[in-house]
Specification:
- Keywords: DNA-binding.
- The chain has 137 residues and is mostly helical.
- The chain is built from seven helices and no strands.
- It has one domain: c-terminal domain of poly(a) binding protein.
């Protein structure tokens, strides 16, 4: 395993990352949280609501999730700087907004895998050839 600076990781760090996940992703998360903390209160409240939703339905891959949250911070920092009203960011349906936003980061998403699994099961049950090999679970 290599670190970003091409130095070998210590055995302790390798073990720690196996247990807790990549330390770089943790740094990215802390940086994201610091950025959100600096937002005006109404934007921060909106981001925190999105964050709660995305924790459940967002990507399961930590690197993909880190990118998604950084992009979320970018969006709200720009919106706050431009004075864009919250409702203008979200539109009339906040769920539609967050679903469209999250679709850009579907790698590792458990909900995406379950949707595919459901679709395949229904196709098999209906006798349709899905063109995929059947796996037993």
């Amino acid at each position: 395993m290599e670190t970003g600076s091409n130095e070998p990781k210590s055995r302790y760090r390798q073990y720690l990352e196996v247990v807790t996940g990549p330390l770089q992703d943790k740094r990215r998360w802390r940086q994201y949280k610091a950025r959100v903390k600096e937002l005006p209160e109404n934007y921060r409240t909106a981001v925190e609501a999105l964050e709660r939703y995305l924790m459940t339905f967002g990507p399961g891959d930590s690197t993909e999730a880190a990118s998604m949250y950084e992009d979320l911070a970018d969006l709200f920092e720009r919106s706050a700087a431009d004075g864009t009203p919250i409702r203008e960011i979200f539109g009339e349906n906040p769920v539609e907004f967050v679903e469209a936003f999250a679709q850009n980061y579907s790698v590792g998403s458990w909900i995406g895998r379950e949707r595919e699994r459901l679709t395949s099961a229904i196709e098999r049950a209906a006798g349709e050839n899905t063109g995929k090999e059947e796996r037993t679970v």
